[in-house]
Amino acid sequence: MSDQQQATQQDDQPFFNIQRVYLKDMSLEQPNSPQIFLESEAPAVEVQVNVAAAQLQEGIFEVVVTGTVTTKVQDKVAFLVEAHQAGIFDIRNVPVEQLDPLLGIACPTILYPYLRGNIADVITRAGFQAIHLSEINFQALYEQRLQAAMAEAGQQGGEGNSGIVMPDGSQARH
């Protein structure tokens, strides 16, 4: 086999690489401080997590995992934290049917520990006891979203979206 054939064969191999992991945005609100610190009742905690992916250019994708933690004591908001943990991933020579699961499962699994750490840190720095977010099974979350999209597409009579936003703003379908 010639060097050129070998190089071509290597260029066709599936490729996945993390280019960068970064905190894209974070906010903290404490609308009832300092009075909320005097409350003795245990707080109620609500956590929401979402995943979004966008193609930046050929083979380069940004995945963002958003976490929102709202804590209330007697219907008063103690604090609200929202963080967007992002990553840029180089993904090439991957079949289209495998791309969406990579973006919806593998990439969020890589980013989530960073999100958990950043949220726990800001809550502690705000003067509250740390809240450690539970592990998330992103495969189960992905499958739930896929089923919901298929059900919605069935009601509308069309195909479901893959969730990938292309550079021109359109959504990729598969």
Automatic annotation (TrEMBL):
A Pfam family this protein belongs to? SecB
Where found?
Cytoplasm
**Alphabetical UniProt keywords:** Chaperone, Cytoplasm, Protein transport, Translocation, Transport
On whether Cell division is a keyword of this UniProt record, the answer is: no
Q: Which coarse location class applies to the principal site listed for this UniProt protein?
A: cytoplasm
Any one GO biological process: protein folding
GO annotation, cellular component aspect: cytoplasm
Q: Which SUPFAM superfamilies match?
A: SecB-like
Q: Which GO terms describe its molecular function?
A: unfolded protein binding
Q: Which Gene3D superfamilies match?
A: SecB-like
Report the superkingdom from the record. Answer: Bacteria
Annotated segments matching region Disordered:
153-174
Assembly notes: Homotetramer, a dimer of dimers. One homotetramer interacts with 1 SecA dimer.
Provide the family line.
Belongs to the SecB family.
Q: What does this protein do?
A: One of the proteins required for the normal export of preproteins out of the cell cytoplasm. It is a molecular chaperone that binds to a subset of precursor proteins, maintaining them in a translocation-competent state. It also specifically binds to its receptor SecA.
- Protein name as it appears in the record: Protein-export protein SecB
The record lists the organism as Cupriavidus pauculus
